[in-house]
Amino acid sequence: MRYYLIVGEASGDLHASHLMRELKLKDDKAEFRFFGGDLMKAQGGTLVRHYKDLAYMGFIPVLLHLKTILRNMAMCKRDIVDWQPDVLILVDYPGFNLSVAEYVHKHTSIPVYYYISPKIWAWKEYRIKNIKRDVDELFSILPFEVDFFEKKHHYPIHYVGNPTLDEVEQYKTSASDSLADMIKDNSLSGKPIIALLSGSRKQEIKDNLAIMVKAASTYRNDYELVLAAAPNIEPDFYQKQLRGAEVKVLYNQTYRILRYATAALVTSGTATLETAIFRVPQVVCYYVACGKFISFLRRHLLKVKHISLVNLIAGKEIVKELVADEMTITNVRSELDMILPGRSEREIMLNGYKDMTDRLGEVGAPSKAANLIYSLLMEHK
Question: What is the reported pTM?
Fold first, then answer.
């Protein structure tokens, strides 16, 4: 069968590549065409557009690149119709993907499946109307979404488990290097590591990295600061944000860094969940401009109490979230201090991580999703 996939960022590329791998095991005639990244490309098929050409975040960046976004969207719609896949598989990235879903539903008979459902429970809940109308099957990777979609909105979904569990477990099983190897390979000092995960989009990095570094630099005599660089961000961009600070920038080693990190400062997103599964105490950092105004909007408009996946899955605060005007150098430094070795908050957080991972269930999400997708498509052939 022919599968067309669309992702808009690095985490989507990772999740979609594993789904593609599992689909190939089920369907030996699988053909892929996609808007995606290098990991998906490695699975085979045709890369139409790289996600780095799509990943604009925030009102101003989106406005500045609106012509490019609309041009890519129009091209994507035409390309799907021309290629006539057996299924369109969307991965998160709702602003782009729901527009494509609407077009495909209206103008073709191609079934639309959504793997990693849009987070409309946090923002823009009205999008449920679009999902009900334009999406044939929805596959969730967050357990609390079942109640949201099925009980609140009477829209049946498939909870398949969380692929991040599989990705971390696969890494732990296959990794054979030692801490000494990592130190040698990257010319590290040998001090304990404070990991910095500042997001995969330039605006996130620009907003967060400098504050994270200034807060963590207090501990540079005893710890080494190591930045897990996003693969789509050029080194020069990081250096502009770091402004000469003593930070080791490592590409394509996020899991390796987390494996050996003592603590982490993490911008909200999948990285918070990865950090928790590696059992690294963390502070969630998410600065945005006009902080007080954004904090007001968050309190009055956001539908959920938390922004990190760790806290959302647990249903309570396990990791500290410093958002908008709360993310200051002083606050980040104070929260980081409380999760370093020997502090009581560290053990409390690690115990909370266990409760959270228990809620996620067993490994096997990409395989389960692929089996369901293939079975559903075969039923309707």
Answer: 0.85
